[in-house]
């Protein structure tokens, strides 16, 4: 996984082309990483998001980053976990794929993802990481952009899950 990196940091501090915001459908801010991104970017991010008319689960939309050190924010809506019986795995893969498609269309070299849907949406962390890694790896095989993808975890548990899944013995 040469084009995939793992960091345990605050995603709002990364100097990349785009960070991905694990947003809610309104795109107007919320808890977790969504709230932090909105606070750090400043009020102009909210103003731009208000013009986007929300976002459906599995889809993504692009805004400027304003006061963040990155250039852009890709807002994507991951699924709420209901036991895996209503297509949550496919919706999560779509959230990653939609974000990557925006990065590709805008020729972003670097993009950083948080752990989408694993907080208040209760998606099982290891399953979410497996879906994220597979979706990103598959996308990178067929696209020239982004050149580098960062999985940016905030907590130790998610970092260890990704570290285990990304170890050479687990790569396929």
Short description, anyone?
By secondary structure, this protein is α/β, with parallel strands linked by helices. It has helices at about 30-40, 45-50, 90-105, 125-140, 155-165, and strands at about 5-10, 20-25, 60-65, 70-75, 110-115, 150-155.
Describe this structure in words.
There is one protein chain. This protein has helices spanning 32-41, 43-50, 88-105, 125-142, 156-166, and strands at residues 4-8, 18-23, 60-64, 72-77, 110-113, 148-153. The longest helix has 18 residues, at 88-105. By secondary structure, the chain is α/β, with parallel strands linked by helices. α3 (88-105) runs parallel beside α4 and α4 packs across α5 (156-166). A six-stranded mixed β-sheet has the order 1-6-5-2-4-3, with helices on both faces.
Key phrases:
Leucine Aminopeptidase, subunit E, domain 1, single chain, 172 residues, globular, alpha/beta, 6-stranded mixed beta sheet, 38% helix
The overall pLDDT, averaged over residues, is 95
Encode the helix/strand succession as letters: EEHHEEHEHEH
What is the domain tally? 1
Q: Which term fits the overall shape?
A: globular
Amino- and carboxy-terminal Cα gap:
10 Å
What is the number of helices? 5
The strand order across the widest sheet is 1-6-5-2-4-3
CATH topology heading: Leucine Aminopeptidase, subunit E, domain 1
Low-confidence stretches: none
Tell me, what is the CATH class? Answer: Alpha Beta
Largest sheet: 6 strands, mixed
Structural class: alpha/beta
SSE layout:
Elements: E1 4-8, E2 18-23, H1 32-41, H2 43-50, E3 60-64, E4 72-77, H3 88-105, E5 110-113, H4 125-142, E6 148-153, H5 156-166
Parallel strand pairs: 1-6, 2-4, 2-5, 5-6
Antiparallel strand pairs: 3-4
């Amino acid at each position: 996984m040469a084009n995939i990196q793992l960091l345990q940091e605050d995603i709002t501090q990364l100097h990349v082309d785009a960070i991905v915001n694990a947003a809610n459908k309104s795109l107007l801010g919320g808890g977790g990483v969504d709230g932090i991104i909105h606070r750090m970017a400043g009020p102009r991010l909210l103003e731009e998001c208000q013009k986007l008319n929300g976002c459906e689960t599995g889809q993504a939309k692009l805004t400027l980053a304003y006061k963040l050190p990155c250039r852009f924010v890709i807002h994507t809506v991951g699924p709420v976990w209901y036991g895996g019986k209503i297509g949550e795995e496919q919706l999560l893969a779509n959230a990653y794929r939609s974000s990557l498609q925006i990065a590709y269309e805008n020729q972003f070299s670097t993009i950083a993802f948080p752990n989408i849907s694993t907080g208040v949406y209760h998606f099982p962390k290891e399953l979410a990481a497996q879906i994220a890694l597979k979706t990103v790896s598959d996308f990178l095989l067929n696209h020239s952009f982004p050149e580098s993808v960062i999985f940016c975890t905030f907590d130790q548990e998610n970092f260890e899950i990704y570290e285990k899944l990304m170890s050479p013995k687990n790569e396929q």
